[in-house]
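If I may wish for something, please walk me through the protein I am sending here so I can picture the backbone:
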Amino acid sequence: MKLSTLTLLAVSAFIVVGCGKGNFSERNNQVQENVLRYPVPNNPTSLDPGIVQDGDTLDMLQQVYEGLVGWDENNNVVPLVAERWEVSDDGTEYTFFIREGVKFHNGRQVTAEDIKWSIERAARPAFKSTTADAYLSDVIGVTEMVNGQAESIPGIEVVDDMTVKFKLKQPTPYFLGKLTYMVSYPVPKEVVPEDSELTDYTKAVGCGPYKLVKYDDKQLAVLEPYEDYWGGKPALTRIERPIMLDPTTRLTKYKNGEVDLVQLQRSDIEGVKKDFGDQLVYLDRPAIWYVGLNQEVYAPFKDKRVRQAFAMAIDRDKIVNVQMGGVNTLANTIVPPGVRGHRDKGAGFDYNVEAAQKLLADAGFPGGKGMPALTLTHREGYTDIKLVAESVASQIEANLGVKVEVQPMEWRKYLEDYNNKKHAFYHMRWAADYLDPQNFLSHMLATWGPENKLGYSSPQFDALCKQADTLLDWDARVPLYQQAEDVVLQDAVWIPIYFQRDVELQSPRLQNMRESLFGHLPHTTTTVADVK
């Protein structure tokens, strides 16, 4: 959703000014020791683990909430709330043994009942979670509860206070990866609302390494270490995140020493190399930026020839390697590097204006005549996203004669429209939730895929994915997924643009940060100290 994934400041170092505008004064002369400060690039979309679905907000909340399992620096699933697990020989039952001493921030021990209750809370129809069924539908009874056909989930069994068992509909080799997603994280039922989204930050109670102690909407989030965290109290004194939508403001704050970490837009990189070149960090992510073509909203996209014409009319190499400076990797497939089964080249389409024009004419729209008005939507506040969207729109107009209006949107509204399948033509990212091709193919594009928001349905693609999804043998699964990937590339419902590479400025004050392909891991070991 992910996909991709993750980033926090010091209260006494800032004075919030301006009602709801997220502005901050210059920090005072005294730098606080061991306080991590870095901005959130958009207003967090939710404080509720059962609702949140975007990487920037997940990054903040992963400090507060914690699940049965998580990721380590080697991109492996490791035990967290669970100290260990067992898997049945047929791959349909997962039994987790909860760690003694894992406490919610209110001091109560986490139990197996908390796991079951929290997932059933997220699956309640009144809760309207978009992630419960998406990540837990393999569990017997989850889909039925989400659809209002059941009052509980029989596939989650409380064996005893410290043991919980998940029963699956079929073997699911990527199930542990799915459990790293926040929708399955436990919350205390005596604190959080049962049938509605958590909006009061004082009720954002998890069992993670930090507590959310202050939250000013559109301004600032403040986290402090949890003394009784099972892994030991984190080293930082505090984590703070100002909410800064403007990339220029974020960069200026870093240059002034007011934040310790900031993600850069492509256009900023050359300008900082002279003074901050030794602080630049390049981080490959298992994520793809693409353009989606929704045939449920825009009727011409129902014709494969139209979609293929659009794919051929976009000079992706020029966008990625010239206009964006070659920081990212041109995507010729869907499954990104870092995910098993990735290929450098698939059965997609290269830039070919003449062939694109012929296909569009064959579909009944010569020179774009007769094509209805079309809008390309994208997330606001990012110069890189805007650049790609505007480039795609201008190339479609120049090469096919189709007028495309570009419309930036506020992030939460964009996600709401995406979830409701309202975007006709859109530029978006999908980042891995788990390192399995299923997360990019079946999950995104199968007829039943929870992230299929564009009306795509292919019996051939579905059959290949369905076969691969339940095989426990990696060597047998990967070729099936690659065949499925070629089918969808030929059908051109996605136009891959690039695989993501983050570029960050990281202060020399930062020490002992843990990284994975997914992003910065929870700051259990991070420290911040003045450089002598």
